[in-house]
Write a structure and sequence with these properties.
The structure is a homodimer. By secondary structure, chain A is α/β, with parallel strands linked by helices. Chain A contains 23 helices and 29 strands. In chain A, helix 7 packs parallel to helix 8, helix 14 packs parallel to helix 15 and helix 15 runs parallel beside helix 16.
Chain lengths: ~725, ~725
Amino acid sequence: MSARPIADVENARTSFARLLNPRAIAIVGASSDPDSINGQVLANLQARHYPGALYPVNPKYAQVGGIRCYPSVEVLPQAPDLAVVLLGAARAVQVVVECGRKGIPFAIVIGAGFAEVGGEGVQLQRELVDAARQHGVRLVGPNCIGMMNVPDNVFAGFGPVFGLSQLRAGGVSMVTQSGGFGFAVVNMAEEMGVGFRHVVSTGNEVDITSLDFMDAFVDDPGTSLIAGYFEGIRDAVRLPAIARRALAAGKPVIAWKVGNSPEGERAAASHTGNLGGSAKLYQAAFDQFGWIRIDDVHELVDCANAFARGKLPAHGGVGIVTVSGGAGVLLADACAAHGLGVPQLSQATRARLREVLPAYASPQNPVDVTASILNDSGLLRAALKVILDDDAIASLIVVASSVEGAAADKIAAELVALDAGTPKPLMVSWSSREDRVGGAYQLLRAARIPLYRTPSRCCRSLAALCRFSNAVRRQARDGVLPARVAMKAAAPLAVANEFQARQLLAQYGITPTREVLATSAADAAAAATRIGFPVALKVQSADIPHKTEAGGVKLRLTDARSVQAAYEEIVASARAYAPGATIDGVLVQEMVEGGIEVILGAVNDARFGPAVMFGLGGIFTEVLDDVVFRFAPIGLEAAHEMVASIRGAAVLHGARGRPPADVDALARAIVSVSHLIEDHGGEIAELDINPLVVLPKGRGVRVVDALIATRTNQPNP
Amino acid sequence: MSARPIADVENARTSFARLLNPRAIAIVGASSDPDSINGQVLANLQARHYPGALYPVNPKYAQVGGIRCYPSVEVLPQAPDLAVVLLGAARAVQVVVECGRKGIPFAIVIGAGFAEVGGEGVQLQRELVDAARQHGVRLVGPNCIGMMNVPDNVFAGFGPVFGLSQLRAGGVSMVTQSGGFGFAVVNMAEEMGVGFRHVVSTGNEVDITSLDFMDAFVDDPGTSLIAGYFEGIRDAVRLPAIARRALAAGKPVIAWKVGNSPEGERAAASHTGNLGGSAKLYQAAFDQFGWIRIDDVHELVDCANAFARGKLPAHGGVGIVTVSGGAGVLLADACAAHGLGVPQLSQATRARLREVLPAYASPQNPVDVTASILNDSGLLRAALKVILDDDAIASLIVVASSVEGAAADKIAAELVALDAGTPKPLMVSWSSREDRVGGAYQLLRAARIPLYRTPSRCCRSLAALCRFSNAVRRQARDGVLPARVAMKAAAPLAVANEFQARQLLAQYGITPTREVLATSAADAAAAATRIGFPVALKVQSADIPHKTEAGGVKLRLTDARSVQAAYEEIVASARAYAPGATIDGVLVQEMVEGGIEVILGAVNDARFGPAVMFGLGGIFTEVLDDVVFRFAPIGLEAAHEMVASIRGAAVLHGARGRPPADVDALARAIVSVSHLIEDHGGEIAELDINPLVVLPKGRGVRVVDALIATRTNQPNP
């Protein structure tokens, strides 16, 4: 079982076109029983007018579905682009070999009974992968239910959605690890109006993975929105690069990720043999790249509607206009909960609104234009225009409440006209029943104006737009930072002790405390005098990992004499504690006081790769797990967002009577660590600056303790 | 503007029947224009066959809606039970007077222009209240849109819902402060299948409040579920008692509360003149009494469906059965997120399942019975029975996934039969389209088996059942604790200094540190010897609120001599700091070390009344606001839930290498403080034990510092 692709990723990506839109398909194991899975695939392809050649393969039949059936893959008149393999696990392995020999580049292995059942299945899965590699066949599955390409009428799978007589085509491409549930989502979303393009179920993902398909969707001109249903992403190390490409292409990604709890992870293991991995790192990926996380089908539908219009808000300031006040209260709350602003309108805007609106209407945001505006839809247009002109407003939610009948049509027409004349996204919450609004809903839908029946769903969808838009802007801004010279060392990293670790950090601009490595008591005293009192002394030895235990640390030394005495004591203690130890010296270090201790680190996660980590010290990390990750490298804006996103962020902004901390310097240090782990990800297993002291505004940060564990060495002490 | 009811609450409650189901109604300001609000109310009552007498009142008409119209309330042939007042603010005040004179007990004032618009409106609202009080009329509104009683055909209001030709009757009664949005919710929920009984919009709530109606719904035999849409609850002090009655009556409450953010609160103020109040206290009320909080319409619908079957789970252990694995992963996650358990099945259950299920099915919870079970629905029944027999399982979610056609009908029939034979709630997630399942959905609905299209909604609804069920059980268990003697003091509380505050706490069984009030240095030394070293000394004086500043505190004194010296120093410093101060003495107190410092307090909130508060000290409260409230009195189970609900709870259970704290003693102390604030709520404004030290398991808690502020006095020092 391996997630490594058989062929080169670049080639695979460019050639996926033949998988997703094959010119001919072999259905191996096709049956004439339309109630069986083996009968459904061919029947579905035929019923939905697949335009290419179809080759049923089954030695039992001369004909299936009214066309010639072949006894084996070998005797097919040509090598089709795709084979759908509808056979038991053991037979499937053999057929993949035959496909390779025939020159068929892609096979979808539907059948289960592989790694997800354990035991013998694990061995069969290994054989399947070997067969595919040896014979040059790229695999989808096994343990999946197929794929569909709606606009091109390729319905190569089984189950209810494949049997639908009419499916609307659209720009949403989706990959799902769970075939059954994923296609149930597609079924429901389609019923609610979403048009799909590609839908692929990947099952056990022994070769082509979810990320392969997402990568392909980024390049697919017909895909405007990418959706994924994941139980776990084994090749997550590729996620950041693909996500960055999606952002650059302006394609939002909607992620439904399950298997987050221990219970869910256990269930996923027995379903597709997949394991969840760190929920924190998934969340980091979703946050960093603006992926929109959903937990239910209607959220997918709502997001698809929100993005279909193609407008993005320039910032998070939302204007809310209601024809009755209640929904305004709800929306103001909902915006706050989703991190959107409901800014005050400018004085000029309010003055202009007062001219337009009835006297008892409220010119404050949320703006209650009152139901009386229904008598004059021109008033509504005028009011909305005034609000849209305000720079504080980047998007507008219009709540048409329960408006019905003729007024509904008029309002819809006004909204369509208004929407056409502004680059700012307009979203509508309208709770009336479809049969009471005349053609109003149709009119809005035709103009692709996002329409929701409740304010809650409307606001949540706008939040998704803002989240994506924000990630696009952040990537653009962080991407235009001055280029830097990567500092990949030619020689292996020398970070055997803390001093060397701190030197490496200093090379990346992360200021250590002022410090000198002293090798005699007199040196130490002289160094302390230069550094300025008080100082700390710490023994430096690769052989003494626990300095304090060894009596190797003395703090708050206030004069030269006590430094000298401390030096001798430390060396004596260290020798007594670890008789054979090589002692490199004693570090004389300025004592940093009056700052806030944070933890800045980096990991090289087995699944996700190099990431930078930030959190506050003490109970924030130990009890509350209040830490945040981002994948390296990041820019300053992302670093500031990391800092802002921890729950204890207030501590840095002057809580508990302290002066505000130098958050700018902290953000720069986070960026630097992300560069360091990017440059040395191959060598560094883990990096921990704990604590990094963030001094008051303008005074920077100081590395007090740093630990770097390389892949080959033990952690330095 | 006052929220105090005009008549006695008990009387009002018993007499609300005439308001909710009036025998005759006057429509004051009725019009013959069916497009106007004034025309709609009468038209709606007539169209929906209101069975009582209708009296339009309008001097402009002789007839309206085909019946006699009266020039004034005065000349009506009888006093109807209810007047619906459709007039401007100033006229409405006058009509309320006339209603009172006529003997009409209830009036719904529809019109706006009162406190919500500010200025003159505030004065008009005051006049409206005065008129109602003086003339004995109970008011609904103003600034509302009326009410409906569906089974009795009372549709006394305006707007789309009132005009629907067919509304299903059911057991859901709802009160809403926002008429427009509230009835939009009703409109959508009804469309999705919810049957309503009473729906009342209360607008500005100058007299009859939301809680009055909820209180009435508790006693209404036709109401099985109570829903409320709130912007703010002014008379929240009544909430605990009403919520307790609802729990005792077995009626769940669904609360949609808006106005939680500063933005939302501002919007609410200009909508119904209501203010939010502390979000923490609302949350406390919802948590304490098992109210189910919702944010969208489908959640109301889903909850109503969940409760309609009338079964409650005995505990939070959920069995999950799927016909395909994917949904199991999702549900395991969702259960974890909602605090539900997905317990291991017993060995016996697993053995029995293995006998019943196909070999490749998983007998682990979530149980994947595999699609092959569709060929033999008897197998499904057998498997579900086995799982339901397991004591670890209190409720069952069955995921029928995308099953269609004949198999759908068979499964539905099996589920109905199974559900009828078990007291455990059964819920179904089934994603197929309605037109593809034959009569399956109808069959389930007829049996009131909760049916959801997605696992997410299914799980959330089950969580609501569990939350309510848990609150019912908690109230029952906490309610049967041994009765206690309330200790309401006859004389005013004497808590002028800390010593007295601690004495009061000791009376309630909350152990202070061992301590003695000494009045000489020799006394102090003798006391310290009795108490055991180390001790702390603290000056006691009502005139010295800041003891430390005054040099009035000495800590960690380890022998008699240093106690004597410290006594003298403290007294000298205190005299120097506050020359005229009366010094009661110096408290000699054991030093408590090795415990965990928490904050235990009580407030007497202006809106909500007496509540007990708990949180961890330091950054948990100062930065994270990680505190929890409950309304007094509470029992041990509620106290334990308070402790478990804070984010930093792990600190008490042995985080950071400490021994587990005595949480049982902490819970007892919380209960005691709830009794204290219950007994003395009238006198105590605020009580703070900060810190209360929770010692390791079995060693109890100690009050280190306590402050009690009475309503009349300054806080004691």
